[in-house]
Here is the input.
Amino acid sequence: MKYSFLVFLCFAVFGLVAVHNPFDRFNAFNLTVGVITGICFGIVYRFMLSFILGITNRKLKQKHGRKEVKKAIARGMTFLLPFALMSLVAAYLLHWTALAGFVSAAFMTASVAAAVELGKLKGKQEAKDALFASVTASLLGIAWNFSLNFVGKIPLYLEGAVHLLKTGINLFR
Here is the structure.
């Protein structure tokens, strides 16, 4: 449970940094949309990683149970934390704007660390776990980077819609 909260907190930070606007750093729309987007992507990421590593390790699931396998994957995903902290510092203290590299590196590191944790549970490391984890992380990293263009515009669309509603309401008063 404690690992899950930490992992979703990291994804909330990644979402926050993804929609970061250097000219309006503490905009409520940006903060809310970023956190929600990050957590939603975190759910997808964890599901996909658990699904792929679960399929390739059926015997391990039968021997130790699903719960232990999920715990091992969650322990590996705690390697997202340093990248989340670095991206938060880079965005808000150093005022950097190109932060997608942190997320891609975090996905790759956390996925391979999850595969290593499964290897510890098995008592031996297997290359297939690292390979499947790396491919999953690469695909999800690509999905994250391509979705940034859309996600970055959501706060603008929401603000525009709220402004349009306010204008429409004021017209009929």
Observations:
- The CA atoms of residues 3 and 74 lie 6 Å apart.
- The chain is about 85% helix and 0% strand.
